[in-house]
Amino acid sequence: MSSVRIGVDTGGTFTDVVLVDEESGQIVTTKTPSTPANPADGFMAGVHKVLEAHAGSRALDAVSALVHGTTVATNQLLEDRPDGTSHLGFVTTEGFESVLEIARQSVPDGYGNSYFWVKPPRIVPVHRVRTVGGRLDHLGREVRPFDEEQAADVARWFRERGVTAIGVCFLHSYADPGHERRMREVLEREHPEAVVSLSSDVLREYREYERSVTTLVDAAVKPIMRRYIENLSERLGRPFSVMKSNGGVLSAAEVVHQPITTVLSGPAAGALGAALIARTAGHPSAITLDGGGTSTDVAVVVDGEPSLTTEGSIGRYPCKIPMIDIVTVGAGGGSIAWISPEGTLKVGPRSAGADPGPICYGRGGTEVTVTDAHVFLGRVPPHLLGGEISLDVAAARAGVEALAGRLGLTPERCATGILEISAFNQSNAIRQITVQRGLDVRDFPMVAFGGSGPLLACRLIDILGLRAAIVPPDPGNVSAFGLLTVDVKNDYVRTHVARDPSPDALGEILADLEAQAAAALDREGFAEHVYARSADLRYYGQAYEVRVPAPDGPVDEAWLAVIAERFHAEHERLYGYGYRDDPRHAVEWVNLRVSGIGPINRPKIARRPRQEDEPSPVATRDVYYDQWGRTVIYRRADLGAGAAVRGPAVIEEYGSTLPVHPGFTATMDDYGNLVVVSDDR
């Protein structure tokens, strides 16, 4: 029996599954409704369904690797559930108990100035913050010894109050983790049932507030993640891996020790899968748009790799772990249309999700969604997943008509208005990830995927002036496909602030980080190790850093000079100026980073046979674009390379639909992607 690899991405509405046969290269895709009450149910249903479709058996014997993308660990924080952090406590250095209140002075976009901005509630209330005596300086030298007796009192205080998840962040522990490790030993002795996260393990770099919050988020989600992983492991009866936000994967056994690394793992997989698809089709740089049921995630791929950041957040909480730079907007297929107090039409960010879902699902939904608008306008067929899920077109029409009546609009005007607002919400997210980062959106094609991603592709081409939109085969399963394209990857960081660093000191730090990476890859079973170095630098006096890649090889003066030159060039590219030849502005080193990578064999994307004849439609139905009209319907599986479909038309497939508006043409390329362009360009 041939071995197979399976990727499972749990989304808000559907669980997407992709199977790759390692012997034949065959790719099998499927979807199943997500089960929010217990995501493991949808996971197992999807695995069994794809195995049965491939080999007619639900047995897991042939599975050589199983990779999972999930946001289960952080959903309660993203949704601000009242009980999300009720089990959480915080231990910090004596005298620094207000670090969470002080936070940062920066005001979020949209508030104008600080008079209209109120800091969000802290992740841990003040009454669950305890301090322990002891102090290190910024070089890790002990100023005051660790107070063991006070630490034991703190541990017992948490135990007596039932606080079972504890984050520990002591001042300057990035320089020496000794005091934090002693605190963990005390907690293990006095409060053994507690789970503990140390900032020196989670994020070993300076800036106390961000390090504290990142550590607390890790501690908050550890119990949930452990229960979820244990449940899945028991039901699978075999090991599996979990997608990380940095573009790598990690075994489930390791993930329970660092669950914060799985933040936005599903969207990260989507960006990586889309990057491989675009690169194979001859587009090394692209915008990726992942449209789901609840939200849309956008990212930028430059020279084949999605952009990375350490300035991300989970909901309102800053998290400085490395992650693919993704902007998320509440504009998915389930986004709800509503009327503001001023009487204007709004769409999202609230979503109908999978349960009850849009009105057309017939599961009790009562509010009009983006999907209902598409169904009413005929742009989505009256069924999903090849007929597995029937849609109630009449109910969608009644919902749209009722909303239109309250707004004083025709139903068609109301439905197209819903889609127009959703398209502009998505376009604003794309501008945020491109224009605000100094990139011209017109230089990139857009890879549109996810169940709802292709639905607004033509409008986004118009709004943004995009060169083209690329819709991959099985667009609803690209995130699950992406799970099978990524290497094992672990990130390590160490703060070392210096204007004139010693090559020996930097070499020693890098060697230590690479040793940590090697140990992790050995535990994952990799004989081949790849290390990627980088460094964060700034001009002396700046409050932000610029990250640049660092070369391999020995650390000497020439090595330092190469990185300094890269920093000058990157600073000038990002901000329009640099101080390369100005000795008044010294270059300051801040952080050293190492990524340990265990490479895998990626699936091959097969070429499609050419189609010489004109494509033939399979049906017609009434569809509204600028007006109602009888519109041809094509089945994507019937199209070969070179086939061109001119709008108005609709192209349907198992997991998604592409409405081709009048004035647009969709052409299938050699790899089965539909390339949508405006006829005016």
UniProtKB/TrEMBL annotation:
Domain Acetophenone carboxylase-like C-terminal as annotated: residue spans: 505-671
Q: What GO molecular function annotations does the UniProt record carry, in alphabetical order?
A: 5-oxoprolinase (ATP-hydrolyzing) activity
The UniProt record lists the Hydantoinase A/oxoprolinase domain at: 211-491
User: Which residue numbers delimit the Hydantoinase/oxoprolinase N-terminal domain?
Assistant: 5-190
Q: Which GO cellular component terms are attached? A: cytosol
Report any Pfam family annotated for this entry: Hydant_A_C
SUPFAM superfamilies, A to Z: Actin-like ATPase domain
Record GO biological process: glutathione metabolic process
Write the protein's name.
Hydantoinase/oxoprolinase family protein
Species the sequence originates in = Microbispora catharanthi
